């Protein structure tokens, strides 16, 4: 409650108040519902391309190579690097794909040989999940903080200058510059 007195009304006016309450609740929850819908849609779209069982061996090899960091360049993927080491790794990946190894097994081989840093994308489980979850949580907390701040600012009544404030400003203007 805001501490304002509630006017006494007839029962005939009750449906109008009910509509106002419903509209207020809708205004309050609609942005949150829209945010949830956008997040769910992004997760669905982001996960839509996860199942690639019918890809060609060349495409699989390129996909795996684009997820691994070049040990020489370290800023480029194996697929994008012009170094001889990257070319050798790409050829090994292609050989493993042709031999029928799964994508996960090939990645696991290189993580076992070089460590987690060889992956350009962090793992989405364990501590690697923190890298994916932390920005989303920061965004949600920031949006929630802004929503609370806007709500608080909207509730505060507009403050008008009092006669005392006007007198103080008038006195300061009449004094003129004191430089």
Description:
- The chain has 179 residues and is mainly alpha-helical.
- Among the domains are: 57-118, Helicase, Ruva Protein, domain 3; 123-152.
- The chain has six helices and no strands.
- The protein has helices at 14-47, 57-67, 84-98, 103-114, 128-155, 163-175.
- Helix 2 (57-67) packs across helix 3 (84-98).
- It is elongated and about 90 Å long.
- The two termini are 51 Å apart.
- The mean pLDDT is 80.
How far the N terminus sits from the C terminus, by CA atoms, comes to 51 Å
Task: Quickly give the structural class.
Answer: mainly alpha
Instruction: Count the DSSP helices.
Output: 6
Rg on CA atoms, Å: 31 Å
Please tell me what the overall shape is: elongated
Q: How would you characterize the largest beta sheet? A: none
* CATH-assigned homologous superfamily of the domain at 57-118: Cytochrome C biogenesis protein
Strand content: under 5%
User: Architecture of the domain at 57-118 in CATH?
Assistant: Orthogonal Bundle
- Looking at CATH, which topology of the domain at 57-118 would you report? Helicase, Ruva Protein, domain 3
Broad CATH class of the domain at 57-118: Mainly Alpha
Uncertain runs: none
Assembly annotation: single chain
In total, the number of strands is 0
């Amino acid at each position: 409650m805001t501490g304002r007195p509630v006017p006494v009304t007839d029962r005939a006016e009750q449906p109008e108040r009910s509509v106002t309450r419903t509209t207020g609740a809708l205004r309050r929850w609609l942005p949150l519902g829209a945010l949830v819908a956008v997040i769910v849609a992004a997760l669905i779209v982001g996960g839509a391309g996860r199942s690639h069982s019918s890809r060609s061996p060349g495409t699989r090899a390129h996909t795996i190579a684009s997820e691994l960091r070049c040990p020489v360049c370290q800023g480029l993927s194996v697929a994008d690097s012009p170094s001889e080491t990257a070319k050798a790794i790409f050829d090994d990946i292609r050989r493993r794909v042709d031999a029928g190894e799964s994508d996960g097994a090939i990645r696991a081989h290189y993580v076992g040989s070089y460590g987690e840093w060889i992956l350009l994308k962090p793992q989405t489980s364990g501590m690697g999940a923190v890298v994916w979850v932390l920005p989303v949580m920061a965004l949600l907390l920031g949006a929630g903080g802004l929503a609370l701040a806007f709500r608080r600012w909207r509730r505060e009544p507009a403050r008008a200058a009092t006669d005392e404030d006007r007198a103080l400003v008038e006195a300061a203007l009449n004094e003129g510059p004191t430089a």
